[in-house]
Structures are given as structure tokens and as C-alpha cells.
Amino acid sequence: MQTLKGKSILVTGGAGFLGSYVVERLRAEGCEDIFIPRSREYDLTKAAAVKRVLADSDPDIIIHLAAKVGGIQANMVRGGEFFYDNLIMGAQLMEAARLLDVDKFVAVGTVCSYPRDTPIPFSEDSLWDGYPEKTNAPYGLAKKMLLVQAQAYRQQYGFNAIYLMPVNLYGPRDNFDPATSHVIPALIKKFIEAKRDGASEVPIWGTGDATREFLYVEDAAEAIVKATKMYDKPDPVNIGFGSEISIRELALLIAKLTGYGGKTVWDGSKPDGQPRRMLNTSRAEAEFGFRASTGLRNGLEKTIQWYVSEFLIG
């Protein structure tokens, strides 16, 4: 186990949704020297900015969370941007870290890297058994290349890079912008606004038949910090809760928790995305003792309360 206290840690994306919780978790571990680059000062798609952020932070450890992300619509419209920016950020950052002999590089990938029809539950051993769901393939493949790079660098250079794959995250501070948000914040916003406006129905993309697994953001941050301390192997590791729910059931639950009593109208002409998602989380538990503790209903209640206080009361 590696002690993080006293280490200099660079957290790319540390001001973002997941990153803010990772930083809080690191501080709870006694870490004081944490560098959080902002995109307006360090454009990590530019090699010069990558070199500058490493010179300014002089890190012992890098946790790479920065990413261009979005829901199905954003992935369909901005696939080229999502592919290039995520690929180039990760590749340049890991190479610069290797050249500077950084002690450890924690690459955080995505469940979107899995093949479209991966058997349930998704095992890390199935990662290369097919092509990802086409609506998010550019993003998923770009992040997947970080695994290839990490394993190649470990083999050739002895560089300690690990690769984690979180499932869909949600929680307070999530992105609620309709143009780029994922399903949970999008549904929370829709139902709360429909209740406020007295709307009789809420339109939702897809058939509702697809399933997803969701992980509360604080649990994800716990897993990442535990892996940073305890995991030093080349194999990728799933980070998830280990159960699935259909989008239809999810929508009904969020409608109930927000107090919306109208109808949901499903637009089957819009894509569902990957048919099913649920992870096998046994490797994370075996390797660094992580098991998610926040149930979906409890996590949704916390997220809804935060949204109401932030956008309707605050």
C-alpha cells in the first residue's frame, strides 16, 4: 500500500464533477499538495500546456480525470471532438509523465469502451471482444487507448500506470445542461421542471428498455483513491455498483422521488444506446477492497435534494 500523505498529486479534471470528490477524498487522506489545473490555463490537448502543467505541479502521482464527455446526443453530434480531445490529452500526458519519471499514473477510462453486446455482467476479460456501441464508440475507443498505452509503457519502460473503468456516475454537482448531460441529471431536470410548470407529460428519448448501472459519485471517488493507494497491476479494473435498472424503471423512480404525477412519453425513434450495462465488480473488491455502499434510491434522493437547493432555492 502506498501512503498518499506527503505526495504531490496532480488531478486533471479536479475541478469537475468526479474530480471535486476525488480531491476531497485525497484531502481526507491527509494530502495537502494537490494541483488542480483549469482548462482555461492549461489546454491539455496542447503539448506545450501538458509540459507546463507538469513543470508547475512537479507531481509524484497523476490522477487523470479530465475528459470531454456527454450523453447520447452529444456523443452523436460531437464524436470527432470527443475522440481527438480525449485521445490526445491522455496520450500526451502519460508520455510527459513517463519522461519525468512520475511515480504513478492513474488513468480513468469509461464503461463505454466495452463491446456493444458484452455478456452481463461485464467482465474485464471481455473488453476486446467486439466494437463499442456506435453512439459512443469514438469516446469509448479514445479512452480505451489509455489502457493500451499504460500496458505498453509498463512492459517497455516499467512505468507504473493503472487503468480504471467507472460505470455511469451520478450525484450532487453533476452536469444538468440538457445538451450534454447524462440520463439521471437529464431526467431529474425534466421531471422537476414538468412538475413546476404543470406539464401533463414528459418526453423521453428511446424505448426505456435499455438497462444501465449507476454508481454514486462519492463511491467512485473512494474507489479511485483506494486504487491509487493499493493497486499496481496492468489489468483494467471495473468500478461500479454491480446491479442494473431499466431506463423505464429509472424514469418512474425519479418521477416518484420528484413528486411528478404526469405521464412519461417514450420516443422510440431516438436511440437507446447500448442495450444493457452491468459490471462484474469482483476484481475491485479483491484487489483493493472496494465495494460501493450507496444504493440507487438513496443516491437519487441526495442528488434531487442538491438540485432543488442549488437551482430552485439557492
Strand content: 5-15%
Return Rg in Å.
Answer: 19 Å
Query: How would you name the CATH homologous superfamily of the domain at 8-173 and 213-243 and 276-294?
Result: NAD(P)-binding Rossmann-like Domain
Large-scale geometry: globular
CATH architecture designation of the domain at 8-173 and 213-243 and 276-294: 3-Layer(aba) Sandwich
- Biggest pleated-sheet summary: 6 strands, parallel
Q: How much helix is in the residues?
A: 40-55%
What would you say about this model in short?
The protein is α/β, with parallel strands linked by helices and 314 residues long. Helix content is 44%, strand content 15%.
Which descriptors apply to this entry?
314 residues, 44% helix, two-stranded parallel ribbon, Rossmann fold, six-stranded parallel sheet, 10 helices, alpha/beta
Verbal overview:
By secondary structure, this protein is α/β, with parallel strands linked by helices. The protein has a domain at 8-173 and 213-243 and 276-294: NAD(P)-binding Rossmann-like Domain (Rossmann fold), CATH 3.40.50.720. Helix content is 44%, strand content 15%. It contains ten helices and twelve strands. Strands 2-1-3-4-5-10 form a six-stranded parallel sheet, sandwiched between helices. Helix 5 links the parallel strand 4 and strand 5. It starts with 7 loop residues before the first strand and ends with a helix. The model has no long low-confidence stretch (mean pLDDT 96).
